[in-house]
Specification:
Chain lengths: ~550, ~220
């Protein structure tokens, strides 16, 4: 294996410079970069909508935008962030880059399909963006019928076409990962030697392949209903709008695990590396990932406790939802146990990983509150729900993405980011996040409903706090954007393994050569084989 | 398969990301099965909707089903089953490395697929003439026109998506036939022929469920 850390070696970045060499590439690493650029763009768009929402909520009268515009803002914030940022974020960027490298493969099983998935993503993005440019959409990201199918006067059709299309990019990514992980592991790399990042992506891919087609066909049916004027969700002819909710949440609840499972994989990599410890309970962690994927498919009805589904269904879904807490808690305990007597280094990825563990725990525990049927009746559709899922999606998924981005940035670019500034921005992000969303738990518990652009004046203090937090949070995202850009030119050369991490991806050069390894690596040890120092009585 | 045993010719079939032909074959096959799992869930959403309404409005569905042309649907079922047979024969020919036979059977399969689509088109036309197209010219004579409309929406959506898959299937087989003509497959390597066959059989199986569910709900008068 080459150990040259010099900048001059041939790598995937200097293997062709033209636009064509990027747009027609089948190299999983270049496709990951294409995805990174695209999802960053959508993150900025979604962030802009969030900014408008928070500015509007500064005052109880909603003076900044009209009620209609506000409806569009939170809808487009949700659609953009969920379908075009969070779901592709870790799998399509870091997963694409790292899955083949971590298993010692030259590429994914189907490189052309991988490129196709990016083009499908772009096509879906164009549809959804044009819907926004043409005047937006106001149904909420959930597209509930009959509002979406009959009553909304906004651009529902292009939006659902966009979401329909982008779903197939997600399916193709998942399919590619499943086949790659099954069939292309390096010699000696058995299932229980795989890094947990791979297990997490395997579990995620199963959800992507089995869940996404259901929302695709459901949204297609909504589109048909809108175009023809009648449809199977149309209550005027005896159709059932609740059926839409069942089909929608059958995908959209597991979709939460598409967002958070890969983050959990990243946290396992980061926590072991920066404490130089073997992972506590490796097999439990692997099985927990799979269990979350499986249970995730059985709990969708907890979104519908007040929608008119039967009480008995509600009770069953409530009980099943509690089950998800078990594998999730196993993970949190095992990460914590891994730290015990470790040599902990507080580098930026580790700070984000700590952020993940803490915030995910809060998000998870409030999830149990919401899964409790009678309590949900009180807090349903309030800011309590908003706060809960932002703790999971931003506090969990995005924190994990940031951890991964910092952790593998030296591998991806060959350059180090500025550590001091990065630590500062990680703390900024953490503080800003909590200031934004913690007040929303209180607001929700006090009864402030979601999706309104006005509210009673007594809620103003907490709303102002939340908006103040959001501006700090925004800063926490902007700083990394600039120092990452800066590091491309001015960053210190990273070398092959700046963190002293285990894992096949660190064996090759940074940035890696086009086919990842000069020679296929042979695996002879477990994952996270960090040197064990005296465990007992030390 | 041992690497040493591979002829130079066979080696050139292996894409850069794979170590050997065996791995490439397995990956292709697993990929297709995973894709079919996706497809099952795609149709599954519609079957779920069908199930819900069939149980909610059993009489209405039975009555509306009388408007289906059982004969044309039955003929189409036969057409698709035969096409599955010829597809299987194409795969068999591929196993034996008989290029000419592969192409012949693929073409026959595609012709049967096209016949199915034509008959389906005739049926759609009848529905159009009888004013049974929901959202366009729906005028239903029987009881419960609204709920019956749901039946017809499901009929058009489910058979429509099935027909779309069949069209894609014909395109895929065309590509496979061209690749066969260009000598891209041998006795040792014909996975694309095989997995296209899997896809074709899947389309067939979907119809095997659609036909009784939509056409044969109730004994016809």
């Amino acid at each position: 294996m080459s150990t040259s850390g010099s900048e001059n070696h041939t790598n995937y970045l200097n293997d062709g410079y033209g636009v064509k060499s990027w747009l027609l590439t089948t190299d999983h690493k270049r496709i990951a970069i294409l995805y990174m650029i695209s999802i960053t763009l959508f993150f900025m768009i979604g962030g802009f909508f969030a900014l408008v929402i928070r500015l509007t909520l500064l005052s109880p009268n909603g003076t900044l935008v009209s009620a209609d515009t506000y409806n569009k803002m939170f809808t487009m914030h949700g659609v953009t962030m969920i379908f075009f940022f969070l779901i592709p974020s870790i799998p399509a960027v870091l997963g694409n880059f790292l899955v083949p490298m971590m298993i010692g493969a030259r590429d994914l099983a189907f490189p052309k399909l991988n490129l196709l998935s990016w083009y499908i993503y772009v096509l879906g993005g164009i549809f959804t963006l044009s819907a926004m440019v043409l005047g937006g959409v106001d149904t909420g990201w959930t597209f509930y019928t009959p509002l979406s199918s009959g009553y909304s006067h906004t651009n529902v059709v292009p939006t659902v076409i966009g979401v329909f299309i982008v779903g197939f990019s997600s399916i193709l990514t998942g399919l590619n990962f499943i086949v790659t992980i099954h069939k292309m592991r390096a010699p000696g790399l058995t299932w229980f030697r795989l890094p947990l990042f791979i297990w997490a992506h395997y579990a995620t891919s199963v959800i992507q392949v089995l869940g996404t087609p259901v929302i695709a066909v459901t949204l297609a049916l909504v589109g048909f209903e809108r175009i023809t004027g009648v449809g199977i969700f149309d209550p005027n002819i005896g159709g059932d709008p609740i059926l839409f909710q069942h089909l929608f949440w059958f995908y959209s609840h597991p979709a939460v695990y598409i967002m958070v499972l890969p983050s959990m994989g990243i946290v396992s990599e980061v926590v072991t590396c920066f404490s130089q410890r073997k992972l506590f309970g490796y097999r439990q962690m692997a099985f927990a990932s799979m269990a979350i994927a499986v249970f995730g498919f059985l709990v969708w009805g907890h979104h519908m406790f007040v929608s008119g589904q039967s009480v008995y269904a509600g009770m069953a879904f409530s009980a099943l939802s509690f089950l998800v807490a078990i594998p999730s808690a196993v993970k949190v305990f095992n990460w914590t146990a891994t730290l015990y007597k470790g040599t902990i280094r507080f580098n930026t990825p580790m700070l984000y990983a700590f952020g993940f563990i803490g915030l995910f725990t809060i998000g998870g525990l409030t999830g149990i509150v919401l899964a409790t049927l009678p309590v949900d009746v009180h807090v349903h559709d309030t800011y309590f729900v908003i706060a809960h899922f932002h703790y999971i999606m931003v506090g969990g998924a995005v924190m994990g993405y940031m951890a991964g981005l910092h952790f593998w940035w030296p591998k991806i670019t060959g350059k180090l980011y500025p550590e001091g500034l990065a630590k500062f921005s990680a703390l900024t992000l953490f503080v800003g996040f909590n200031l934004t969303f913690f007040p929303q738990f209180i607001l929700g518990y006090l009864g402030m409903p979601r999706r309104y652009h006005i509210y009673p004046p007594e809620f103003q203090v907490l709303n102002v706090l939340s908006t103040a937090g959001a501006s700090i949070l925004g800063l926490g995202y902007i700083i990394p954007f600039f120092y990452f850009m800066w590091s491309l030119r001015k960053g210190k050369v990273a070398g092959n393994n700046p963190w002293n991490a285990k894992g096949l991806e660190w064996l090759t050069t940074s940035p890696p050569p086009t086919f990842n390894f000069d020679k296929t690596p042979v695996v002879t040890e477990e994952a996270y084989a960090y040197p064990e120092e005296d465990l007992v009585g030390g | 398969m041992d690497n040493e045993q591979l002829t130079h010719e066979t080696r050139s079939f292996v894409a850069h990301q794979f170590d050997d032909l065996e791995q490439q074959k397995e990956a292709g096959t697993l990929g297709m099965w995973a894709f079919l799992a996706t497809e099952i869930l795609f149709f599954g959403g519609m079957f779920m909707a069908y199930l819900v309404y069939r149980f909610s409005y059993p009489q209405v569905f039975a009555a509306a089903s009388q408007y289906m042309d059982v004969v044309l649907g039955g003929v189409n079922t036969g057409v698709l089953l035969v096409s599955s047979l010829t597809m299987a024969l194409a795969v068999h020919a591929a196993q034996e490395g008989n290029r000419k036979q592969i192409i012949t059977f693929l073409i026959i399969t595609m012709i049967f697929g096209a016949i199915f689509l034509v008959i389906k088109g005739v049926e759609y036309h009848h529905k159009f003439v009888e004013h049974l197209v929901p959202g366009y010219n729906f005028q239903y004579e029987g009881a419960e026109p609204g709920k019956s409309e749901i039946y017809f929406i499901l009929y058009f959506v489910m058979t429509g998506f099935h027909a779309l898959h069949l069209i894609i299937g014909i395109v895929v087989l065309t590509v496979i036939a061209i690749m066969t003509a260009r000598g891209r497959f041998t006795k040792e390597y014909y996975t694309p022929v095989e997995i296209s066959g899997l896809y074709w059989h899947f389309i067939d199986i979907v119809w095997i469920f659609l036909y009784p569910l939509l056409y044969l709900i109730h004994v016809h008068k």
